Amino acid sequence: MFAFAGPGLLTGEGGGGSVRGYLLHRVKPHLPPWLAVGATGVAGALGHWRWADSAAAGVGLTLSSVILTGATWWAGRATSQQRRLHSAITVAAGSAWLTAACLAGPMTGPLDDLFLMGGPVVALSWNVRMVLRRNDADPQGGGADKGLLEKVGLARAQIGQAKVEPNRVTAPLSLEPGEQTNDDVSKALARIASALDLPVSAVRYLPSPDSSRRGELVIVPEDMLAQSAEYEGPSNLGGSIAEPLVIGRYDDGSPLSLWLPGDPKAKRNSTHLLIAGGTGSGKGETALNLQTEILSRRDVLLWVSDPKAFQDFAPLRPGMDWTAEGGADTEVMVEAVKAVIPARTRWLGAHGYRQWLPEAAEQQTSREHTCRPDGRPCGCPGMPFLVAWFEEAANTLRNLGDDAFTGIAQEARSAGVSLVVSLQRPSYDQMSTSTRASLPSVIALGCDPRDEGFSLPEAVIDAGAHPGAWGNRRPGYCYVVSPGIPEDRYPSPGRTFAFPARATALMEQLAAWALREGATADPVTASAVTAVAGRAYTGRTVPTPAPAAGTRPRLTAVQGDDDMSNEQGHGLLVDPEDAGIDPEADLPDAEQGDDTPIFGQETGRKPGPKEARELFARALEEFEQAGQMIVGPKDFMDWCDRNNLSRPWVSARLKEAAENGRLEATNATGRWRIVPVLAAA
């Protein structure tokens, strides 16, 4: 065993070669300058032997020296000024000595001493330069590095003094004037990430808004998002919706926040939000993060439509002001949001608000915000902010058309209403370009690489944001573009908080808090939505307290005639629909058509025109009382069978009711919105 250890130690084996080979490998990069000095001395001796007495050779050698020096200076324009000057001085000195040695002799006068002293100095200067270059090869170390940029095709660019922060390096970059632009850096980001052995999302470029050839190269070497952070509760329970909503963290550990209302002092506009991401990208947990933050604020109403029957949001549903499970209910919610916008805008304008502010949610006791002509405080109830959330919006857009949200998106911000649209693929065949252009904020989660342009602005993608690199492999990873967030943060990836099973109890407690302490609809908003939705809108409903332990529920007797109630007061002993029948009255006489067969019955009677219209009006009232405010011929199929009426007759009555103001047409063909009785009157 020891016999093999000795030679290995002496020769340096075990590292793949001998000591001699290792030293030769380390010395080889430094040999070219010394070889060039030696070759210059040999060339001087041979030239003197050949051209010692030739005047023509002297002219030729002098011209060659000048041309070679000029060519070196010209070729060095692609490098730094230091390298260019060093190269030109080296070539000029060497060619001048060679010319003198060829004509006068290398041993004549001081030429031999100049060679013996100047040659090693020139060679060592290049060795020193190479050593310094290798020491600065790390792009995080400062502005002297050029090797990385040369590898990625940006050799002419200049890196300034880098700013080193925890897990973040920012280096100013200046490109060659007239030959390179910021677009060249954006195209090279993937190669830079490859050279640094980092994911493409860890390298981004922030171009200067004042220059097309200057910007900042940002490198985040460690992915701090690999370990997900779990939801621990709202960030600001009882605060205002105007304060930041914290939904996760960035890759450098800083909070991931956004705002929905505007702030004139901060020069921030109110915004609408698009949440986009493929299947499995974490849209559900992202929505939970945002909804829990919204419900934890004291001055906001949350309306949510979810065709998935609130599969993800069930623990939060009691705290929401209004919910809809898709279909006709969602159609009503869309129409209601459209109706509340002008009513809320009118109220805000009358009270001196150019946009919604937290003061608008309080009772109006200020002279600055009063609707009274004499300027005295009006004391009007405040108006909470409103968030209208449409989950799985592709379903709604298919039913209502691709421009269902266009009017809301274009007009709602000034009314203190924020629209949130969540869907997998916000392509232009699902959502109109007008709607997409009116959604200034986006949370872009992992998606198909071909869909990146549907979610993020082109400038953010050019800066290094690529949600397509994640797909559904990193749930919760996202880019957030929204007013109030610094633009240099747009291409920085973040990750939303995770909601494990144990977070359900926290969500239930938060919903209970919102039910007790959350805002309720102001009279203006409630009136406007009720005029459209009728009984479909109930607002937050406080549950009835449970009876005390040991007591039995008490049934209250229904008021009525004594002979219609029993002695114990247990209510009517007849069906409610038969309560108005006089048992002593004679039965009505037979009418024409009583024996006409009806589907499902042996005999039946077709109602006359007047009676049929009364039945139709009663049917509309029943739909309204049940909260179904969107109807069409298909909703009357069973009713037609019971009353022996045809579907075309119902279609005609629907159009007639629309002409009388009882119905209003919707975006969907053949669908009508019931106008509540009071609103119609």
UniProtKB/TrEMBL annotation:
<feature type="transmembrane region" description="Helical">
    <location>
        <begin position="88"/>
        <end position="108"/>
    </location>
</feature>
<feature type="region of interest" description="Disordered">
    <location>
        <begin position="559"/>
        <end position="609"/>
    </location>
</feature>
<protein>
    <submittedName>
        <fullName>Sporulation protein SsgA</fullName>
    </submittedName>
</protein>
<keyword id="KW-0472">Membrane</keyword>
<keyword id="KW-0547">Nucleotide-binding</keyword>
<dbReference type="InterPro" id="IPR027417">
    <property type="entry name" value="P-loop_NTPase"/>
</dbReference>
<keyword id="KW-1133">Transmembrane helix</keyword>
<feature type="compositionally biased region" description="Acidic residues">
    <location>
        <begin position="575"/>
        <end position="594"/>
    </location>
</feature>
<keyword id="KW-0812">Transmembrane</keyword>
<keyword id="KW-0067">ATP-binding</keyword>
<feature type="binding site">
    <location>
        <begin position="277"/>
        <end position="284"/>
    </location>
    <ligand>
        <name>ATP</name>
    </ligand>
</feature>
<dbReference type="InterPro" id="IPR002543">
    <property type="entry name" value="FtsK_dom"/>
</dbReference>
<feature type="transmembrane region" description="Helical">
    <location>
        <begin position="55"/>
        <end position="76"/>
    </location>
</feature>
<feature type="domain" description="FtsK">
    <location>
        <begin position="253"/>
        <end position="454"/>
    </location>
</feature>
<dbReference type="InterPro" id="IPR050206">
    <property type="entry name" value="FtsK/SpoIIIE/SftA"/>
</dbReference>
